[in-house]
Structures are given as structure tokens and as C-alpha cells.
Design brief:
The chain is an all-alpha fold and about 160 residues long. The chain has one domain: AhpD-like (Up-down Bundle), CATH 1.20.1290. The protein is built from seven helices and no strands. Helix 1 runs antiparallel to helix 7. This is Alkylhydroperoxidase AhpD family core domain-containing protein. Pfam families: CMD. GO terms for molecular function: peroxiredoxin activity.
């Protein structure tokens, strides 16, 4: 499989990805736990069917110390006992924020309140921003059919 377009060697795409990557990097200073952030990135990528991002964030999470068991259960987090209440709230917000078109009226107040119960305002900004940025990357990769499996941990794209 080959991508429809080579985003990694296109100068316009490079400018866009530079800014999206900078936004993602800025989130690391907001106090959202790295493990929560990786779970969020993985879940949104699963929902959007972005194989490239699922591959990337699974590998990055494993490298950062996340367990295979938890990563395997992200897609079924509601039935899994391995996630904290805060992680569950973040995953729920991720699903609602990623599936905006499926809801009538956006993210329900109850979902927001569960997340706000576990995270500070800065962490909520980081959480929302992580959801937005990964959804943007997912859409780029799905639209161009970016193949998955070749990503290496720490690779700068």
C-alpha cells in the first residue's frame, strides 16, 4: 500500500505539520499525565480508523512504559477494570469529542462534568487540544491512506 500523497516530503504539508506538531508539543507542559494523553490519542485514532496513528501511539505508549494489557483494552475501556476513573473520564470525553456528528448538541454536560471532576482547567485544555490535534492528524492520514506499520519510536515526522 502506498499513500495517495507524500505528506512527509511536501513543503506545504511540512509547514502544516510543523504547526500541528508544535501544538501537540505545547500540551506536554499542561500537567496532563503522559499515560492519559497516549490513551486519548490511541482511542481517537481507533475511532477514526487511522492505522498509522494507532501504530504510532501504541509504540510510543509501550516505549513510555504503558502495558500491553491496557493498550489492548482501550477499545473496550468501559468493560475493562484496568483504567482509573480519571482515565475513563478522559476516554469518554475523547469519544464524545471525536464523534461530534453522532451527538445532537455536542458533548453532553455529564461527560464534561465527569472530566472536570478529575482534571484542572489547564489539564482540560490539554485534553481537549489533544483530542482536536489527533483528530486533525487522523483525518490527514485516513484521507491520503497513509500505510501503517513502519513507524519507529521517537521518529520525528
Amino acid at each position: 500500500m502506498q499513500a495517495r500523497l507524500d505528506f512527509f516530503n511536501n513543503p506545504v504539508a511540512a509547514k502544516i505539520f510543523k504547526h500541528l506538531s508544535a501544538a501537540g508539543a505545547a500540551l506536554k507542559d499542561a500537567g496532563l499525565p503522559d499515560s492519559t494523553r497516549e490513551l486519548v490519542l490511541l482511542r481517537a485514532s481507533q475511532i477514526n480508523g487511522c492505522g498509522f496513528c494507532v501504530d504510532m501511539h501504541t509504540k510510543e505508549a509501550l516505549h513510555a512504559g504503558e502495558t500491553g494489557q491496557r493498550l489492548h483494552l482501550v477499545a473496550a475501556w468501559r468493560e475493562a477494570t484496568v483504567f482509573t476513573d480519571a482515565e475513563r473520564a478522559a476516554l469518554e470525553l475523547t469519544e464524545q469529542g471525536t464523534r461530534l456528528a453522532d451527538g445532537a448538541g455536542g458533548v453532553p454536560d455529564e461527560v464534561w462534568e465527569r472530566a472536570a471532576k478529575h482534571f484542572t482547567e489547564d489539564q482540560l485544555v490539554a485534553l481537549i487540544s489533544s483530542i482536536a490535534v489527533i483528530n486533525a492528524f487522523n483525518r490527514f492520514n485516513v484521507i491520503v491512506q497513509q500505510p501503517a506499520g513502519w513507524y519507529q519510536v521517537g521518529q520525528k515526522l
